């Protein structure tokens, strides 16, 4: 079968939601501290320039001065920068594109923007405060560490990690520059309380924005395969050692499992190991620089139109989301308690 005969739509109806207690608490802390902050750096993931926009931040940020930072540009194709720069300008927003891990020059632009603003107001010169917000795992803490290193040549101040949800509370102020004195506040990654579009949730999970056990990994892998084929990007065949592109995730798993030797006793395929390998290969950027969102003008306009209408959430969905969040919090509390209990019993 050739690429032109492959699926053109991805059928999946279930939405995936992840809004644990620390996020609800984080939102409250952000709101409480908003008044003492001069600038919001809203961080997004350049691989999913639209899906990493959390409309909840609109309510939190309000009219505060905002800088949009698209991080992880090293993993996204260059057209993301051109397109989103133009689209944000149209909407009166300033965007900066960064690679927090290996491009200090890109990160420095955030300091330059802060200095420019602090200079305008002498009152702010001695103390200019920035709050860094964004969805989980977009690289907020990595950016803060990079800024601190560039600004005052000091080491890590914020914990980072490949898994989402490393930062669990709003941090104390972290100094990143002297004269003007610029301080940053790190915040926990915040997900939308309810993601109404299943595809958006899959993209966020695929790029590492949700805990792995929240989403069904086979669905993530199947979606990734679908996207790679839709992009007509068959680079994955070479990377994974496949003879030809396929539209069938089970076929891909079987071939890949054999190739990497992910087999259980008796020669049965170790699906979990193979899935993890496939997802990790993508997340490490081995398939090339890919954008999972459609960035044609019509899709972008549609996204903003739907976002500005408040992503209509039915009363039922709203109630469902609240109940899911409550259940998640209760489960976390229970796990914490049983964890303490086990520690005491040791
Ligand atoms: N390739 C690439 N990886 C990055 C970049 N920035 C951060 N990372 C990686 O992305 C992962 C998440 O980074 P963090 O800085 O912990 O993300 P965070 O937004 O603070 O995460 P939460 O604690 O979930 O809010 C880590 O494995 C980082 O090494 C980047 O610009 N490029």
From TrEMBL:
Which residue intervals are annotated with compositional bias (Polar residues) in the record?
Answer: 306-315
Please provide, alphabetically and separated by semicolons, the GO molecular function terms listed in this UniProt record. Answer: GTP binding; GTPase activity
- Keywords linked to the UniProt accession: GTP-binding, Nucleotide-binding
What's a single GO CC term here? mitochondrion
Q: Which domain of life is it from?
A: Eukaryota
For this protein, the record's InterPro entries field holds: G_CP_dom, GTP-bd, GTP-bd_ortho_bundle_sf, GTP-bd_ribosome_bgen, GTPase_MTG1, P-loop_NTPase
One GO process term, biological-process aspect:
mitochondrial translation
So where does this one cross the membrane? Answer: none
Keyword presence, GTP-binding: yes
Q: Where is this region: Disordered?
A: 306-346
Q: Which residues bind GTP?
A: 71-74, 137-142, 189
| Keyword field contains DNA-binding | no
Q: Name the Pfam families for this protein.
A: MMR_HSR1
**Where does the CP-type G domain start and stop, copy by copy?**
27-193
| The protein, known as | Mitochondrial GTPase 1
Annotated source species:
Coemansia spiralis
């Amino acid at each position: 079968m050739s690429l032109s005969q492959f699926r053109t739509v991805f059928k999946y109806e279930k939405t995936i939601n992840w809004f644990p207690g620390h996020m609800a608490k984080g939102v409250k802390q952000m709101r409480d501290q908003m008044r003492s902050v001069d600038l919001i750096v809203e961080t997004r993931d350049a691989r999913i320039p639209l899906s990493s926009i959390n409309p909840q931040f609109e309510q939190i940020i309000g009219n505060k001065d905002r800088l949009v930072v698209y991080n992880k540009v090293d993993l996204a194709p260059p057209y993301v920068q051109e397109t989103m720069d133009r689209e944000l300008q149209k909407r009166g927003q300033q965007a900066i594109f960064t690679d927090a891990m290996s491009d200090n020059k890109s990160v420095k632009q955030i300091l330059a923007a802060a200095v420019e603003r602090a200079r305008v107001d002498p009152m702010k010169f001695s103390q200019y405060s920035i709050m860094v917000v964004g969805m989980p795992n977009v690289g907020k803490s990595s950016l803060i560490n990079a800024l601190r290193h560039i600004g005052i040549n000091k080491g890590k101040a914020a914990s980072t990690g490949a898994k989402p949800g490393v930062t669990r509370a709003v941090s104390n102020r972290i100094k990143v520059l002297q004269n003007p004195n610029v301080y940053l506040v790190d915040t926990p990654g915040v997900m939308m309380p309810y993601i109404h579009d299943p595809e958006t949730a899959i993209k966020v999970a695929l790029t590492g924005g949700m805990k792995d056990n929240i989403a069904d990994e086979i669905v993530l892998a199947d979606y990734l395969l679908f996207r790679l084929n839709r992009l007509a990007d068959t680079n994955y065949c070479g990377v994974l050692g496949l003879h030809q592109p396929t539209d069938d995730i089970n076929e891909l798993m079987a071939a890949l499992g054999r190739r990497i030797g992910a087999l259980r006793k008796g020669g049965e395929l170790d699906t979990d190991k193979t899935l993890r390998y496939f997802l990790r290969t993508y997340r490490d950027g081995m398939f090339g620089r890919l954008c999972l969102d459609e960035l044609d003008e019509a899709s972008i306009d549609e996204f903003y139109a739907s976002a500005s209408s408040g992503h209509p959430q039915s009363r039922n969905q709203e109630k469902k989301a609240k109940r899911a969040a409550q259940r998640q919090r209760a489960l976390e509390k229970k796990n914490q308690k049983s964890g303490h209990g086990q520690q005491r019993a040791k």
